[in-house]
Write the C-alpha cells for this entry.
Amino acid sequence: MTDSVALLRQTLPIVVPRLRRFARTLTRHAHDADDLAQIAIERALLRAAQWRPPPAGATPEQIEGAVRSWMFGIVKNAWIDDLRARKRERAVVRGDGGIEDVADDAHTAAEERLSIAAAMQQLPDEQRLAVSLVLVEGLSYQEAADIMEVPVGTLTSRLSRGREALAAQLRGKENSA
Amino acid sequence: MSTHSSWNDTEIHAYVDGELDAAASERLEADSRSNPVLAARIAEQRKLRTALRAEFDRVLDEPIPQRFRDALAGPEPGAAVTPIGAARREAGRAARAAWSAREWTAMAAMLAVGVFVGILASRGASDVPFRMQQDRLVAADYLDAALSAQLAGPPPQDAAARIGLSFRATGGEYCRTFALRIGTGGLACRREQRWSVELLEAAEFGTDGFRQASSALSPAMVSAIESLGAGEPLTADEERQQLESGWDAPLR
C-alpha cells in the first residue's frame, strides 16, 4: 500500500458524516442517501491509487479537504449513474422514454410545500446539486464548479435559480402559515 | 468607481456566500443600511442558508451506521476503523494482512470451483453456466450470454443472471460482477474472447439492482476487484457501447 492510499484510508472515516449530509441533500429518502454514500466509499477504495494527495507539508485540514472534494465528486457521479439507471427502468416499465412523473409531482407539490427538504427535492437535479454544494456544504464557487465539472458561471446560474425557487417556497410557507 | 444602488441577484448571492470582493461587500453593506428592500433580500438569503443547514446538519449528529464501518474496512477483512494515529501505525501491517487475505480468497475460490462444477455436472444439469477450458473456468450458457449482452442493474424479468458492476482492469480488459439465481455470484473478465471467471462465491440474487449491485460486495470480491486495479465502474452509456462492440480490450 502506498503512502497516499494509506493517507486516504485514514482520512475517509473523518469525512463520512459530511458525505452522508451531502448525499442526504440529493435524494428523497435517507436510506437511498446512505446507499449513495456507501457506494461512493466502496468506489473510492477500489480506485484509491488514483487519489492525488496534496503536496507534502499539507495540514490535516488541507488533506481532509482534498479527500472531501474527491469524495463529493464520486458521490455526484454515483448519484448521476443512479438517476440514469432509474430513468432507464421507468422507460422499460412504461415502454417509453418520455414523459416524467407529472401526475406524481402535481400530487406532491401541494402537500410538501411546508418542508425545506421537500422543496429541495422539487428542484431540478443540477440546481439541487449546486445549492447543496454551496449553501449546505459551504464550498467556494470554484470548488463546487470543479466537483460539478462545469464553469463557475454555469454553477452560479444554477445556484441562483435554485436558491430563488427555495426562497419563494419559504415565502409561500410564511404567507400561508 | 461608481457606486450603484441597485444590486442584482448574482451580487447579493455572492455577498451572502462570501464570494464578493471586500470593496464591493462594503459598498453593498452601506447601501443595505439605507435600503430596506436590499436589506430584506439579504436577510432572506441568509435565512435560506440557515434553514438548509438546520435541516441537513441533523445528519451530522446521527451515529454512523455500521454499514459504513464495514465499507471503510473494505478490502481488508479485520481492518477496523481506528483513530488517525493508530491507523497510521497499522497501515503497514494492514497491507500485509490484505495480501494474505487475497491469497486465501484465490485458494478458496479454486477449491470451490472444482466442487461446484463437479456438483452441477453430476446433477446432469443441462444449462451449466460454467465450463472448464484447459485449466481455466469460463462462463458458459446463460451466464456467458448475460455477461456479453446484459446491462448492469436490475435484470430482465425471469433472467437467471444479474450483472452488478462493470469496470476496466489495469490490464485493459473489461470485467463484470454477476449473481445467479442458483445462489452463486462472482467476477468474470473478458480475455481471449471468453469470460474468464476470476472469483466465485455464494451470493444472493437480489432484484434491486442498484443497491445489491455494489453495496453488497463481499470483502473477497472487493479484494479481487482491487487486485485487478479497477477504475471507476462503467457508466450505462459506456456499457452499452461495449455490449455492441463485444467487450474485447482494445489492442495496444
In short: The longest strand of chain B covers residues 194-202. The longest helix of chain B spans residues 84-122. Chain B touches chain A through 57 residues (CB under 8 Å). The radius of gyration of chain B is 27 Å.
